[in-house]
Write a structure and sequence with these properties.
8 strands; two-stranded antiparallel ribbon; transmembrane helix; 3 domains; membrane; about 270 residues; mainly alpha; Double zinc ribbon; DZR
């Protein structure tokens, strides 16, 4: 009796091939003496190999270099050649481990590394599509949402625009309506630039308050002190009205007109 070098079955001496796995018993015996004890094994039939073998002398299987990542059978632990579907030793179906691939954020389209749950760019959950940053902002109080750094620059720009519009309105005879029109247009347009409604309300309050305080001085600058005195005595100040309109227009613009105003701005930039 001889032992099959591939599957370990005891086989009669007069047989050339193993009745269990079909390995050539004679070839296995012929190469036995030439192979050192510490030689590698064929991943297909288990025959001993030396470092010069590119193909197994027993079954002809191509021998992959050690640099390539090898796979092993989950059942018996045998080394498996590339593209093997079933283990040649125990017949277990080979389960390929899928390569980790980058995911694409469903919100902003940024590539996200495998294993990452939230997009580092916008905070969106790459599995559910929920925006973590938006959920966090929605739970903040009104005071926590206010960021003066995001308010000051738009407020200055909007105030300059409001003063110019008011001056033009006074020149063409709109009187105190010039300030009403100016605050509606400036607060409504620039209020869309705020990142949340709390900043928009503070922005509208600042622009409306300063414009209201400058109402009489602007009339005096345009027509002189006499007309300014008559204007103030006849029409009175409109500070409270201008502030209220500024807050309302900034809030409405930020909540409901943001996308429309930004779209119009982008189209205008594209025409330039």
């Amino acid at each position: 009796m001889v032992k099959c070098r591939n599957c370990g079955l005891d086989v009669a001496d007069d047989l050339e091939n193993c009745p269990n796995c079909g390995s050539n018993l004679l070839k296995s015996e012929e190469i036995k003496e030439d192979i050192p004890d510490n030689s590698a094994k064929c991943p297909n039939c288990g025959a001993d190999l030396n470092e010069n073998h590119s193909f197994c002398p027993s079954c002809g299987t191509k021998i992959e270099s050690e640099e390539k990542e090898s796979r092993t059978c989950e059942n018996c632990g045998s080394t498996l050649p590339e593209n093997t579907l079933f283990c040649s030793i125990c017949g277990t179906k080979v389960k390929d481990t899928p390569k980790a691939t980058k995911k694409i954020c469903p919100n902003c389209g940024v590539e996200v590394d495998p294993g990452t749950t939230f997009c580092p760019e916008c905070g969106t959950n790459v599995f559910t599509g929920a925006n973590n940053k938006q959920e966090l902002v929605s739970t903040q109080s009104f005071a926590e949402k206010i960021n003066l750094n995001n308010i000051i620059k738009p407020s200055i720009i909007a105030l300059v625009v409001a003063l110019i519009l008011s001056f033009i309105g006074l020149l063409i005879g709109f009187s105190w309506f010039s300030f009403i029109i100016a605050i509606i247009l400036s607060a409504g347009f620039f209020g869309a630039a705020m990142d949340n409604e709390a900043n928009a309300i503070v922005f509208g309050l600042i622009v409306g308050l300063i414009l209201g305080l400058l109402e009489t001085p602007l009339v005096e600058f345009t027509y002189g002190a006499f007309v300014a005195g008559f204007y103030e005595g006849f029409f009175g100040g409109h500070l409270l009205l201008i502030v209220i309109l500024g807050v309302i227009m900034a809030y409405v613009s930020n909540m409901y007109l943001k996308e429309s105003i930004r779209g119009a701005t982008d189209n205008f930039k594209g025409m330039l």
